[in-house]
Amino acid sequence: MKPMNGERKTLELFEKAARNVVAYKKFLKKNHLNATDISRSKDFLTIPIMNKSNYLRRYPLKELTWKGSMRHHLIFTSTSGSTGEPFYFPREKLVDNQAAWVHDLFYKYRSDSKDKSTLVIVCFGMGVWIGGILTYQAFKIMGDRGESISILTPGINKAEIFNALKKIAYNFDEVIMVGYAPFIKDIVDEAPSQGVNLRKMNVRLIFAAEAFTEGFRDYIAKKAGLKNVLLDTMNIYGSADIGAMAFETPISILMRRLAQRKPELFDSLFSSISKTPTFAQYNPEFIHFVSNNGRILLSGDSTIPLIKYDIGDHGGTMTFREVVRIFRNHGINILREAEKAGISKTILKFPFVYVYERADLSTTLYGLQIYPETVREALLTKPISTYLTGKVTLITRYDHLQNQYLEINLELQKNKNASQALKARTLTQIVKNLRLKNSEYRELSNFLKKRAYPRLVFWPNEHPEHFRPGIKQKWVKKQR
């Protein structure tokens, strides 16, 4: 059987790297593997797994690059360092062009996009991180090819974003805002108080960096006046390591929304995980994913080629045909559903990857896992969402008697205070959602009663202790 495109491309990349990357030669030798023994798809299993600690941090940067040379036109971006010391990844045009391909797909989901003027507002930080710079490069490439795209890069400067929305956005047929989901929510929530009516604009949204629920998507779509969540939102699974790796498509969003309504279907797609994963498609000509004991391994070409690279995320992969069959087994013709939703012309028969948060992005209470998603979802309900931004930080703490408890830090919206009524309502809603979505917590709270309830701490907007603006939100912190 011939390997799929992704496997074939990976084997070609392996052979090339084994010849031309000094560090990879040493890595294979250390793992007692002769590159000439790898020639067929089944041999892929014997290729050693690389990660930051056993590969990227083990060899000098020059040795990690093609032919050990820095004589290239490189752009460097850094990992956020959320799970350790930042690593600086160089890249050339290849990754930018792949990102442009992904963003162009989204841009053209609406068939009339080519006849419109579009303003892209890049709301990612524009420092050493990849989100802002790669987004700018992707849309610039599209503009250079002749698309009617204008770009503004205010980054995380809210004043500049609102000025742009008030003073220039109305001159365009559509506005695409791109950013970290919690930050875009801030913009949407604060827009009315800033004199901005997003509903009068043709707004579309692109997110990256983390998963969110369909409840979050519906909340932000309603407040921003989006016309169609399937066509006007996209979440990108990306990284500093190798750019825009996978991306939501209209049909992947539709599939996830249908799955969340049917628990049995959800379990068939995503196993028995209790969290909502990002569910995306990927172009096997650019990147190849495999799952190894629930961990995502990727292979792709860049200035530092990555082969069976453990990026640290959990999840799984499926072919398009496998996903269609799963839906059919649960009585759903997904292609017919796509036609009903008006997205049949956007369908790509690419493979899928689902990705959910790492174990280190949860905290524990009496040995069970508590995920921020369950708490964040509870905060989308009214009137709580009127007072809180939805950002939280979870910490497992101990009282003076060494009893364990869950502390939840919550950020208030600007110029809002936490009344006793708000505190009581928020606690009730969080406990209700934890009991609904987490069976282990339900059992624990049945036994411990109010001792299992979290302790809530309300903070002023953008307080630096837990909610410093401009950086990734720390959803979980470990007690020092």
Overall description:
The model has no long low-confidence stretch (mean pLDDT 90). The protein is of the alpha/beta class. The strands form 5 sheets. It has a 6-stranded mixed sheet. It is 36% helix and 22% strand. It has 2 domains: 91-360, Rossmann fold (3-Layer(aba) Sandwich), CATH 3.40.50.12780; 362-459, GMP Synthetase, Chain A, domain 3.
Secondary-structure map:
Elements: H1 5-20, H2 22-30, H3 52-56, H4 61-64, E1 75-78, E2 88-91, H5 93-107, E3 118-122, H6 130-144, E4 149-152, H7 158-167, E5 174-180, H8 181-190, E6 203-208, H9 214-224, H10 229-232, E7 233-239, E8 243-247, H11 250-261, H12 263-270, E9 278-281, E10 287-292, E11 295-300, E12 306-318, H13 320-329, H14 334-340, E13 352-356, E14 363-365, E15 368-370, H15 372-378, H16 384-387, E16 388-398, E17 404-412, H17 420-437, H18 439-448, E18 455-459
Parallel strand pairs: 3-4, 3-5, 5-6, 6-7, 17-18
Antiparallel strand pairs: 1-2, 7-8, 9-13, 10-11, 11-12, 12-13, 14-15, 16-17
Helix pairs in contact: 1-2, 5-6, 11-12, 15-17, 17-18
